[in-house]
Amino acid sequence: MKKFTTRDLILSGILLALGIIIPMIFHAVGGMAGSVLLPMHIPVLIGGFMLPPLFAFLLGLITPLLNSIFTGMPPMFPMALIMMFELGTYGLAAALAVRKLRLSSIPSLIISMISGRVIAGIIVFILSSFFGVQMNAFTYVKGAVVTGLPGIVIQLILIPSLMQVLGKNYKVGTNN
């Protein structure tokens, strides 16, 4: 197993803190702004570009969990559970797309967004099939994409720009 660096640990902590603080600001400003602008996704996706795959996955897994514990948003069951797997997949897929496939930021983001939504759909299917959650997987994913379109556009503009700036100063997307 590869050893982690202090940089990875510190960066994970900073991105986790941002993943909690940014959504709190959005929820304070406007109730549904979180599901439209997807503020929790941004630090996790950035983590996918800047952290090793395991750290990026754990960042995505832990961020919705801690948000639910600290703020009640998203509600633990079923939303935080769904988002834990979705965001964990975002971080992992982005990290793998950058490091293993050597893709640039936009294709990496698109792959991670699609992968995360597919996993979210699978989790919704499992929850509805085995735990009585009254949700339809296809409707959930479709609704998440349509509602989150403004946030998706923001991510596709903001994150590549930020990675380009950070890439000049840090080892972004290297095999850490």
TrEMBL record:
The keyword Transmembrane helix belongs to this UniProt entry's keyword annotation: yes
Top-level taxon: Bacteria
Record's keyword annotation contains Ligase: no
GO MF terms held by the record: transmembrane transporter activity
Transmembrane segments: 12-38, 45-70, 76-98, 110-131, 137-159
One Pfam family matching this protein: ECF_trnsprt
Listed Gene3D superfamilies: 1.10.1760.20
Record protein name field: ECF transporter S component
Organism: Acidilutibacter cellobiosedens
Lineage of origin: Bacteria, Bacillati, Bacillota, Tissierellia, Tissierellales
